[in-house]
């Protein structure tokens, strides 16, 4: 029996846009179907040219059509939507809300996604490096994860993730996040050149964070990590107000001075009803290549003292190693491809503990255990 166009469309209904989480048939992304015996050629119009998830579309389309009786070969071609087509897609994603109305609130987002802020008392302790590696570790455990770089003045997530691209807009309300390592993220660094200074006062900072939360199409995430700026300034307060009762992880070094400064963030969290999940002690020790002994270059016990003061625990001690630094510089987090490295194992340990202390709110797939 000959393959029909209707059979192809029916099979493609199970293929979802990875960012928009709706069927490519429902979103009118299937623009052409050619059937030549057992050879089916499908043209999919992507929301933006050069979509970083093109390979996912191809795999999913091939898998779906491979189940249709009689299909022997599948060719997937790609085009790009016009501005009008993207606007129509945006309207469908908004669920029919009138153009210009808010699509959702921060509370609605928090009700579906487990949001964890990664905070520190001062800069230079490795907070952003920790955020990126925690995200990759959670992804390796089978969770869907996104990152908001809320460190507006000191943004670094795009470089650490290895993608300096600009986000694409579906319409004048909705942005698509940038992707790297199969993780969506957004940052002020995704909107300006890396060497460009952002010179804003407090209210503007809070407004940008609100836009990152509400106007970026995050889709269905298990976890959204927020890389907070160091200290207890405007952004940290804005996030606490927009996302009450969310969880925090504190990053410190073993140095007593760094741990003491970080305790102020814990004090603020107590006043804003945010829960401290635990402390990650970064640069905890240096593991010598020659003697394999731990050398406590920045002292010892700062993380433990901070955790005891805040009534939580140290969930990981990350060793000081050039591999972590190099991975951050070139956009290749150490957890991504060096899982056996002691630092990668420490990040994976932290991710498992976070999933235990603050589990995802909606979870349907089986957890992948490493």
From TrEMBL:
SUPFAM superfamilies: Fe-S cluster assembly (FSCA) domain-like (SSF117916), P-loop containing nucleoside triphosphate hydrolases (SSF52540). Residues 5-76 form the MIP18 family-like domain. ATP binds at residues 121-128. Pfam families: FeS_assembly_P, ParA. Binds and transfers iron-sulfur (Fe-S) clusters to target apoproteins. Can hydrolyze ATP. Homodimer. In the C-terminal section; belongs to the Mrp/NBP35 ATP-binding proteins family. In the N-terminal section; belongs to the MIP18 family. This is Iron-sulfur cluster carrier protein. It comes from Symbiobacterium terraclitae. The lineage of its organism: Bacteria, Bacillati, Bacillota, Clostridia, Eubacteriales.
């Amino acid at each position: 029996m000959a393959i029909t166009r209707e059979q192809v469309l029916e099979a493609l209904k199970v293929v979802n846009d990875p960012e928009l989480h709706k069927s490519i048939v429902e979103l009118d992304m299937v623009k052409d179907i050619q059937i030549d015996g057992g050879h089916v050629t499908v043209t999919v119009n992507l929301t933006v040219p050069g979509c970083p998830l093109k390979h996912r579309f191809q795999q999913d389309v091939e898998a779906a059509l491979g189940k249709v009786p009689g299909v022997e070969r599948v060719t997937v071609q790609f085009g790009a939507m016009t501005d009008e087509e993207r606007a129509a897609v945006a309207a469908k994603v908004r669920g029919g809300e009138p153009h210009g109305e808010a699509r959702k609130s921060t509370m609605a987002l928090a009700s579906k996604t487990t949001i964890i802020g990664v905070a520190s008392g001062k800069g230079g302790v490795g907070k952003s490096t920790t955020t990126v590696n925690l995200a990759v570790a959670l992804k390796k455990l089978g969770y869907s994860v996104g990152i908001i770089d809320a460190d507006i003045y000191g943004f670094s997530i795009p470089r650490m993730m290895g993608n300096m691209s600009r986000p694409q807009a579906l319409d004048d309300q909705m942005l698509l996040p940038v992707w790297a390592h199969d993780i969506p993220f957004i940052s002020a660094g995704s909107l300006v050149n890396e060497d460009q200074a952002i010179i804003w006062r407090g209210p503007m900072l809070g407004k940008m964070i609100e836009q990152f939360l509400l106007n970026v199409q995050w889709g269905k995430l298990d976890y959204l990590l927020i890389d907070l700026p160091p200290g207890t300034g405007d952004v940290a307060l804005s996030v606490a107000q927009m996302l009450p009762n969310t969880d925090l992880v504190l990053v410190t070094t073993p140095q007593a001075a760094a741990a003491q400064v970080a305790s102020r963030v814990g004090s603020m969290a107590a006043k804003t009803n945010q829960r401290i999940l635990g402390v990650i002690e970064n640069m905890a020790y240096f593991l010598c290549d020659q003697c394999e002994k731990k050398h406590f270059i920045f002292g010892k016990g700062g993380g433990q003292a901070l955790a005891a003061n805040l009534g939580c625990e140290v969930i990981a001690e990350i060793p000081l190693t050039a591999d972590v630094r190099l991975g951050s510089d070139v956009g290749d987090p150490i957890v991504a491809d060096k899982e056996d490295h002691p630092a990668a194992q420490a990040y994976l340990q932290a991710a498992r503990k976070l999933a235990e202390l603050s589990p995802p709110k909606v979870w349907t797939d089986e957890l992948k255990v490493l």
